[in-house]
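Field reference: "sequence" (input) and "structure" (output). Example, Sodium/proton antiporter, NhaD family:
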Amino acid sequence: MTTSSVPNLLDLTTSVYGYLALLVFLLGYVFVVLEEQLGLRKSKPVIVASGLIWVLVGIAYQQHGDPHTAGIQLRHYILDYAELFLFLLAAMTFVNLMEERRVFVALRTWLVSRGYTIRTIYWVTGALTFLISPVADNLSTALLMGAVVLAVGDHNYRFISVGCINVVVAANAGGAFSPFGDITTLMVWQKGVVQFVDFFQLLLPSLVNWIIPALLMSLTIERSQSSGEPRHQRMKKGGVTIVLLFLLTIALSVMVHSMLHLPPVLGMMTGLGVLKIYGYYLSFHDPIFREHGHITHHHAESTTKHSLLHGDHSGVIRRFDIFKVVERESWDTLMFFYGVVLCVGGLATLGYLTNLSVLLYEGWGINLANAVIGLLSALVDNIPIMFAVLSMDPGMTLNQWLLATLAVGTGGSLLSIGSAAGVALMGQAKGTYTFYSHLKWSWAILLGYIASLTCHFWLNGF
């Protein structure tokens, strides 16, 4: 990422513009917290808030005779966002295409059809979540394994509740030791404060973070046979090839970043281009099927002549089209990230992050500050927290940056609303996995959180 910054930023935290900007940010975040109750997507209020904040920043600097700094800083943050946006766009396209090719459904079918006991399924889903989330991101992995838990659990509500908690903790812990596991780790990697291979120093602490609450919760699960009925669904053509292309794209991103010192987004976008060419191949070889009297396909836009159709059809023949996969990206998340980056950047330009850095990292000490910030991520989304820490740049060592990454990445597991994985599974297992069912095990998750930080200190020092 771009690391250049404009010197001599003003401290406008006690000005009327500073107070107004802070108020706008807090009001915007209230709407984010109330997203489920209001049915208002979280990206909408933060995008509006970011625009208002930067208008206030621009006016404030103009009033102090500086008409240029606000614009330069805004472009700096937009560039930061652009790199992350394109990286996430490519990664999400790969994951969505694997989903469209039924890669995850085939894995779920295989697991459910094994005839394991529900305790075995509990451990298998947790372990696979921990291993897959560093590559496929924690949200997608949690939804996949959550579907397995629901399919196996059937009407065993205790197992479903504990199984979902296990998946959420494993997804967040697994995502913490890989740049591809979570947006926060991606931000840290692209900023350049932690190199790709250095993230694997968090493997054992992340494993401890998951395994301790998993062991405690497993004591409540009986060894009865699973009762879920498997739905046999096979992978569609090209599924394995897309998985291999994704792994090669990750390798390319790492190499261009570590060997050529180029932004890793270059590797991801190049891989996306190759994927699109492969999608062109699939568009000629993907089967067309008829449903309810119409020729349809999960994705499709290329058409054929009506003369080729038999019978009465008002539609057109549809084939695979990769741009339809791109349309299915989580645009709310991508736009939310835009709002967050600009909101936090605006507050930083007004001087708030400098003051907060002095309060936390100089007043409390770096290690304690990082541990507390991790706990805060259970209440406040971890994306703005990590971006704020990166923007503060409190002069931390590699081990201290790893501590911040571990804490922010796993602290959200304490509450169901503390991570995207938890929020998604609450919707998937509505009424069974709830905020309160998760809260009952927060004490065990906290023990895992403390033990993981202790493990990091033991392995890597203070």
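Residues 69-100 form the longest helix (32 residues).
Residues 1-7, 289-317 have pLDDT under 50 and may be disordered.
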